[in-house]
Amino acid sequence: MTADLVIGVDSSTTACKAIAWDRTGKLVAQARATFELISPHPNWYEQRADDWWDALCQSLKGVVAQVGADRIAALCITHQRESFVPVDEQCQPIRNAILWVDDRCHLEVAELDQRFGNAAIQDLTGKGPSTKQSLPELVWLQNHEPEVVRRAYKFLDVHAFLVYRLIGEWVTSLPCADPMGVVDMRKGDWATDLIQKIGLRPDQFVTIKPAGSILGTLHEKAALATGLPAGLPVVAGAGDGQSAGLGANITTPGKAYLNLGTAMVSGAHSEEYVADTAFRTLCSPIAGAFVPEEVLGGGTFTVSWFVENFGPDMNGVHLPVSAEEVLELAASKLPPGSLGLMLVPYWNGVMPPYWDPGATGIMVGWTGAHRREHFYRAIMEGISYEHRLAMEGVQKATGQTIHEYILMGGGSRSALWCQIVADMTGAKVTRASTTEATNLGAGILAAAAAGWYPTVREAANAMTATERSFEPNSKTAAVYDRLFREVYVGLFPAVKQYTDRLTHLTYHS
Fold first, then answer.
1. Do 31 and 59 have their domain in common?
2. Could you tell me if residue 406 is inside a domain?
3. Are residues 333 and 196 in the same domain?
4. Domain with 221 in it: what CATH number?
5. Domain tally for the chain?
6. Predicted pLDDT at 356
7. Beta bridge pairs of residue 430
8. Segments in 96-167 forming alpha helices (H)
9. 425-442 pLDDT, tens digit each
10. Is the distance from CB of 330 to CB of 373 less than 8 angstroms?
11. Residues 12-37, buried b or exposed e (16+ Cβ, 10 A)?
């Protein structure tokens, strides 16, 4: 039988999902396996890397059971970024992996700024130091678990760990490695001077290859574990954010993606390397290009938090609607600006543009006229204000105008939120046709490597599609423009010293 499918694997923070894609980007089969999130202390988050492998094998077997092993032409992995695990010479973990959501390294973030300067680190790596990145976590290991650092043969991102288990090679891709914050973005390789200055050795990091290249082939042991044929090409993937952009066909300037998922992530395409505190810069799945990106930890997480704690009690109410749908209907009846209620959505700190791990959420404008639907709409508006803030920085730094946003993730199912984003940015908003754009990005890289298309761009054009579009309403857009420029832009800077002090007094005293 002809190998007419490729498999994309998304090893995320909560689960591993394998999907078989055909040449048109149609989902043919899928399987998913979850793994445990471990929190040994408040705001510390870890996982057993062996669980990543077990979930990968389980999900791949599930797909193979549906379509057969002989139909698979190639395999590619995308993954949770910044998470890493130290391993020995046999790729056995020395300790649990430290995840991107981990928040233990506040002091190390400050230490890096004192030693090197945030501006110098951002210029070199494209990213200011943040508790969400591997760089300060590596310094934390050096400060608190020096024996682990001494014993570590390699420090592996999720992609590198799974690839070694599949093909037996110490290798990862550039867009998988660079989110760790220890890559020289201009050279496209490890920042060896920085690595040495923080007390690690360059040989503790694996070889870097371009995304879309064939890293090797599946060995016999991995074939038995996954159900796939030995010799199957394993293709270099990209981190989940960059992969999502590829799955939304953001491969040329002028468009950007907006993933309204648990975190809110948005990225554009740039042919040139630009570092700016307004955003963070990553390597693109398109070789030689870059992704100016914003990340907000509280995306639909903030919506879910509000609904869970303050939403309408639907227990015992047998209606074909959810609490979110009830709140959205009520919120859609409100005027833009939520009757003077404004939210700054830093429920999980903030990276660009302020790079402040001590930042917390802010709500201003409370009066007795406000109800929970006002708060619900203010959350959507606050996240959209923050999106505009970051993407205006991207447009200014890159010199490109973004005329369309491709929306994906759970929040994109909200017609109200899609319209708010369009009105907030003044740009067209279009829904991606698949909710699995991150996984599809891996499928696109696999399809190009399998020879189905001459280039990754051509594979993306052939395998992606869009659905409904939302055009900005000029009257509503004018209201949001005044609120953004006259209130939102200055709100957090005006109270930053107080939120930082409050965080310190609450959590570090």
1. yes
2. yes
3. no
4. 3.30.420.40
5. 2
6. 87
7. 406, 469
8. 106-116, 118-125, 134-144, 146-151, 158-167
9. 999 999 999 989 999 999
10. yes
11. bbeebbbbbbbbebebbbbbbbebee
- Residue closest to 355 by CA, chosen among 128, 139, 190, 508: 128
Give the residue carrying structure tokens 């090893």.
11
Residue 320 CB partners (closer than 8 Å, separation 6+):
none
Distance CA 298, CA 404 (A): 23
Q: How far apart are CA 236 and CA 244, in angstroms?
A: 15
Residues 186 and 268 in one domain: no
Q: Are residues 361 and 395 in the same domain?
A: yes
Residue-wise pLDDT for 226-266, tens only, equals 999 999 999 999 999 999 999 999 999 999 999 998 888 99
CA 271 to chain centre: 21
Domain end call among 201, 216, 237: 237
CA dihedral 125→445→169→230, nearest 10 degrees, is: 170
CA 52, distance to chain mean position in Å, is 18
Cβ-based neighbour number of residue 258 at 10 Å:
29
Q: Return the bridge partners of 382, or none.
A: none
What percent of the chain is modeled with pLDDT above 70? 98
DSSP 8-state class, residue 494 = H
Whole-model pTM? Answer: 0.92
Q: Is residue 447 part of a domain?
A: yes
Q: Report yes or no on 242 lying in a domain.
A: no
Has residue 58 been placed in a domain?
yes
Vertex 278, ends 479 and 275: CA angle to 5°? 145
Last residue of a domain, one of 171, 203, 237: 237
Burial classification of residue 206, based on how many CB atoms lie within 10 Å of its CB (0-12 exposed, 13-18 middle, 19 or more buried)? buried
Contact 74, 232 (CB under 8 A): yes
Burial of 80 by CB count in 10 Å (0-12 exposed, 13-18 middle, 19+ buried)? buried
Residues 316 and 462 in one domain: yes
Please report which residue ranges of 339-414 form alpha helices under DSSP H.
372-398
Domain check: are 361 and 503 in the same one? yes
- Chain centroid to CA 403: 22
Closest CA to 261 of 75, 13, 3: 13
Tokens of 493: 């800077």
- Token duo for residue 87: 């391993």
Q: For residues 302 and 196, state if they share a domain.
A: no
Residue range(s) defining the domain that contains residue 211: 5-237
Residues near 90 by Cβ (< 8 Å), separated by ≥ 6? none
Strand positions, DSSP E, 337-378: 342-344, 362-364
Task: Please list the alpha-helical segments (H only) found in 399-430.
Answer: 415-425
Do 202 and 320 fall within a single domain?
Answer: no
Digit-coded pLDDT (tens) for 368-379: 999 999 999 999
